[in-house]
Specification:
The chain is mainly beta. It is built from no helices and 17 strands.
Length: 258
Amino acid sequence: MIGFPEAILYLSSTAPVAHVVVRLTDVAPDGISAMVSAGVLNLTHRESHAEPQPLAPGEIYEVRVPLKATGYRFLPGHRIRLSVASAYWPAIWPSPYPADNTLHRGADTPSRLILPVVPPSADLPAQPDFKTTSPDLIAIGGGSEEPSLWRITEDVLEGSVTVEIYGGDTTVLPDGRSLFNAERLLLTAYERDPAHVQLANEVNYRLQEYGYETHIRTTGAIRSTESDFHINIELLITLNGNTFFQKSWLDSIPRQLL
């Protein structure tokens, strides 16, 4: 197949705002699965992204969920699996409402998957010859990487899941200039209280050139309630350890069916 797969689902929810996340996977005979494509839709955007509408609790909607474009061959003996979920933490912000979401099937609610299958034809071009050896790269400068971090912590008593992510590296050019950049994220969501989610991050850039060191540090925090996002951002720029520029922002934004 090649192109855009599409899931056509009949869904209902007990909440006015809900998400659907679909994953298309290839399941080998030994049970190992490989991701092929995925799609995400805020169900309030089922008819329009410009004018979202809340869900009527209990009403069944026909929803079309486009998946990312892909080119893939399922081998004989493999199975095609479509999994359906209502959350994708921490990739998307949770819906603010606890909900029971239902996927309907049957003659009157034919939930289905449409795959862009390439038809067999003698007119199809021959498969190209692919390069299988590593490219010859020209080394320019150097650098190093910080130890990466991806930690998931589940608090059973609190009913929370926290994801901590860190990554950073330093790039050094042949003339001796160097740039360090790193980002740390801390995200927490609560199973019994999905409206209140917290995100905190810190980003650092440190440029050394011509005897000067420029350090850019930003910190940010987003927390949500059922009705709003509250955002706090701080920026500090120093030159050789002295403050060059500093500013902070504090704002609240209505969720508007998010």
